Amino acid sequence: MLSPGGDPTASPRAILRVIMRPLVICGCLFLLIATQVRAQEACSHESLQNATARFKSTQQKLLAVKVGYEGMDTDVQPSTRKLIHEFKDALAATVAEYMSCTPKDVSDVKQIEVALTGLLGGNWPGSPTSSTPGTAGEFVDQIYGSHLSLSVARPSSHSELVIVKFIFGINCGDDNMLLVYERRSGRWSRVLFWQSGDYTTIGGAFGDFFSYLIVPRGGPDDWVLAVAHGMPWCTSRWSGFDVDVIQPAHGDAPQRLLFHREAGYVRDEDVEMKLRPGGFEIRAKTGSIDMEIMTRKVIYSYRLVDGTVQRVQPVALNGRDFVDEWLKTDWKEAEQWSAQQNAQSLREMHAQINELRSPGTKNWTSFTYRAVRACSVDPGHFQVELDQDPGVPTYFQIRQGNNYFEMLSDAREPDPKCNGPDLMRKPS
């Protein structure tokens, strides 16, 4: 559960009264930006004022939603879903009206951030909050739609873009949305809008963490957006996250989802996301099939190839973790990391172990990694032992190269040439 943020001396209702000041204050803001927007034919101060009023009215209704402590209210009721939908639509509409009033040659995007903050009453101190533990059966409001925060950025590699990111509170976490505007034909055009669909539980929100990158794909105007976000929850440290790659709208062609992946992760460590040559990389902490190890680091490296998004090496930090990732991923992916001369045997072993791990299997099996030993045949050749109970061990032969691993073979008996010391043995 996230910690409550904000000014401890101010009540939520007091803060709400501040952001719900009469709209005449917004009128003052319009006067401040008027000199910048007179030349914008599509700009309408009245439309901007109306959009802002609709947002504030919707936010007030969403803040009034009561959340129950008992059961932590992970379900999102239909009426609340409708309000969240309207809330996000109102945010996007206000940004659209404001961007129509923004000069194409704006030099400092922080001006946009300050103006939008003034309009929407965002950037409250602290982080989006979950409900504070209370008495069973007690209900509180000021959760959904609280702690609205926004940021506006311009990627250094793409000066023609402006990215507006919103974050706001939901029960036990937060939700995020992203809008990307591009300077085209003398005005700002929205080319990408990324948000969650309507969710029946809080796990459907784009929250817990939210990271994005503009990934170059060719020429200066050819790019895609890579987004990674978690799935909020009230109790468990285990959750899932999504990776999405979106191609922006261009001309009459709408934005398009090029790639989507779901994976599990551990929420108590930061998720790292960075560009890499030809693509991007995500590093997170995930579960292991060995319950004694419990968690390990995983690497998701992706390359953009001819309009597709392909996972590439590295996928793990060491040989044991590679075996674990090889077993946990689907065969279509694992096959790419496998020696083709032994593909049939490896595929059968991969399927067998995954069947024993599948939910509802009749004979529950526990897996334990034992020794990882170097082999004398090749400096990059190693053997990883995986025991199963009930069952017999499997000895995986792997090769480690420069930023990659390859699954060579599997066997029920150890290779006598792999008799080096246990490289993963913990000091006694």
Structure description:
By secondary structure, the chain is an alpha+beta fold. The chain is 24% helix and 33% strand. It folds into 3 domains: 1-204, no CATH class; 211-312, no CATH class; 342-411, Nuclear Transport Factor 2, Chain: A. The strands form 5 sheets. It has a 4-stranded antiparallel sheet. Helix 3 packs antiparallel against helix 4 (78-99). The longest helix is centred in the N-terminal third of the chain and has 22 residues, at 78-99. It is elongated, with a radius of gyration of 26 Å.
Q: Short summary of the structure?
A:
The protein has 428 residues and is α+β, with helices and mostly antiparallel strands.
Task: Show the helix and strand layout.
Elements (H helix, E strand, L loop, with lengths): L11 H8 L4 H14 L7 H19 L3 E2 L9 H22 L10 H11 L18 E2 L8 E5 L7 E10 L2 E12 L2 E8 L12 E10 L6 E8 L7 E10 L8 E11 L5 E5 L2 E9 L7 E11 L2 E5 L6 H10 L2 H4 L8 H15 L8 E9 L6 E9 L4 E8 L2 E8 L17
Helix pairs in contact: 3-4
Structural class: alpha+beta
* Helicity level: 10-25%
- Give the overall shape: elongated
Question: What's the count of strands?
Answer: 18
Strand content: 25-35%
Largest sheet: 4 strands, antiparallel
Order of helices and strands: HHHEHHEEEEEEEEEEEEEHHHEEEE
Quaternary structure annotation: single chain
Q: Tally the helices.
A: 8
Domain count: 3
Q: Provide the spatial order of strands within the biggest beta sheet.
A: 3-4-5-6
Name the poorly predicted regions.
Answer: 1-41, 129-136
Radius of gyration: 26 Å
Overall residue-averaged pLDDT value? 85
Q: Whole-Å distance between the termini?
A: 36 Å
